[in-house]
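Continuing the series of single-chain predictions for the mutant panel. This is the parent chain; the variants come on the following pages.
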Amino acid sequence: MRVDAVVNTTNEKMVGYSGVDFAMHQAAGPELAVACDKLAPLGLGTAKITPGFNLDAKYIIHTSGPVWQGGLAGESIILKSCYVESLNLAVEYGCNSVAFPLISSGAYGYPKDQVLSYAVQIISEFLFDHELTVYLCVYDRTSYEFSRQLFAEIKEAIGDAFEEKRNFLCDTRLLAEEFNCAPCTPPAVEYAKAPTQRKNAVSASCERRRARDSGSMENKSLHEYMQSMEKTFAYKLFDLIDERGMTDVECYKKANVDKKTFSKIKCNPDTYKPSKQTAVAFAIALQLNLDETQELLACAGLTLSRSFAFDKIIRYFIQKEIYDIFVINEALFEFDQVLLGC
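Parent structure:
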């Protein structure tokens, strides 16, 4: 990981005999063992720091996690201390980024899905008071147990997308010829399964759009027409933050967006154009409904369609009023989609 610091989960003697610890010593070189000998012993739940030596990272933060004993021996308290102490050291040494493994989830037997869930919670709480980019590195997909029921529901929703798109486009092409206009895009109306309802919905949408467009163009020069453009994404975002009674910091942290990115938005409100995952992340942080989300995305020339897995997953969570960005990112990860934030 090309970060300022990587976290090494080790033992009291700080000897790299297995797992992440062994890999860290192999990659960093023999100088790491010498540095660790000087720092040992390392108490449970504490953290100490060494240079990164041959690693790309400047520092290695060493922490000693708990051995799993069924969850009744204070393991969660020690695990929390490992993460918090390591994060504090990263801040103390001026790091802008740090990468963690799932502490104690290997030879020490702590259930991987529990470590992942707990680590996300601890790190999220820490980041509300500190500016730091944190990566959680998982060895493989067995490191977490995504909800099978949620997986099935989302998979079904994604599967429906292609049939909806085919039927919708068929209807809109026919109606476009009737109204002598370009076909509506799938997000233009809420899809209705019954053919008659679907045709009526598309027809009404075409009527509204034709009336709107003709009204907006009537007796206007190009210059006058361009003057009537709506707000940019940035100004729309600022208005929504104020309407929700949130601070800028609260909003961009809930959106899993870093301070640097938000500063770009603040400094370039007229020209900033977000990526789709960043724009959606702000919609989730602001807890916008589907119509409000589409309106915000439209300010950046974006939309949530019914034709792509990413869009369908986001629609699913918004319609279910689930706005936990980390839960949504787990779902996106499960379906091999780009994650929210930046």
